[in-house]
Amino acid sequence: MVGISIEAGEDGRGLLRLRAEDAKHAMRYAACQPNRLPDWFEPLYRAYPETGFALVWGETRWELANGAPDQPMHDMLHDLVYRAPWLHADMAVPIHDWFVEHGAINHDALRYGRSIMVSGGLPAEKLATLARQQVDTAPASQQPAWYALWVDTDADAAIPKLEARLAALPRPDDARFAEQFVVALVGGRRENGPTIGRWRTPPHLKRLYLLMHRHIRSSEDINRAGGGVYWRS
After folding, report:
1. How far apart are CA 149 and CA 134, in angstroms?
2. According to the 3-state scheme, what is the secondary structure of the chain?
């Protein structure tokens, strides 16, 4: 990897002299590293887009298929979000199609996939259709986040369904669901990402504000007066 970085030069274009087979090996080495997708990966990917796409999507697909339901993900999906926004347009459609067929293996896969799909420019209508399907079929732990994507992309249709979903839950399950939903919608310590923002209108904001206060009841909150900083997630 050190040798490849030296060969790449400051802008990565030194690697463009590589033969196709050597370029493929260089990209594969990058994908196998803990800190993958170095700066020189982009010019090499653009020079050999079919090879690069096959490699990146192959790694991403493996993660989506083999991640543990209860374990965080810090591999290719993570690096796509934080180190390679230039790849989002290429990865958005295959990730969307994977979710349509298989769903998300865990919350991180959903969170990273949502960021890539939105940043990659998928139409709001396409994302709304996906979210509408997943709110009925996804594991219960993921449903607040899928509702958040649905509200973000089609608030008119999604908010009434969210109201009905919360009304059907017993206390305090409704509060927990509402808390997770609102963090996924507006962001939190680990939930920040690009959004469509179809809910950012005065009528929708008012309706969501009242709905959250109806189910996240201050009377049930922890008394933290004088106890320092408190995070509720």
Report:
1. 10
2. CHHHHHHHCCCCHHHHHCCHHHHHHHHHHHHCCCCCCCCCHHHHHHHCHHHHHHHHHHHHHHHHHHCCCCCCCCCHHHHHHHHCHHHHHHHHHHHHHHHHHHCCCCHHHHHHHHHHHHHCCCCHHHHHHHHHHHHHHCCHHHHHHHHHHHHHHCHHHHHHHHHHHHHCCCCCHHHHHHHHHHHHHHCCCCCCCCCCCCCCCHHHHHHHHHHHHHHCCHHHCCCCCCCCCCCCC
The answer to whether 147 and 131 are in contact (CB under 8 A) is: yes
Q: Scanning the structure block, which residue is given the tokens 């059907």?
A: 168
User: What's the pLDDT band for 35 if we cut at 50, 70, 90?
Assistant: low
List Cβ neighbours of 156 (8 Å cut-off, separation of 6 or more): 198
Q: Please, what is the end-to-end C-alpha distance for the chain in angstroms?
A: 40
Q: What is the pLDDT of residues 80-139, one digit of tens each?
A: 998 899 999 999 999 999 999 999 999 999 999 999 999 999 999 999 999 999 998 999
How many residues are given for the chain? 233
Look up residue 71 and give its two tokens: 């374990």
One-letter-per-residue 3-state SS of 182-228: HHHHHCCCCCCCCCCCCCCCHHHHHHHHHHHHHHCCHHHCCCCCCCC
Pairwise pLDDT comparison (122 vs 19), residue with the higher score: 122
Report whether pLDDT(233) > 50. no
Please name the residue that has the structure tokens 């994908």.
Answer: 31
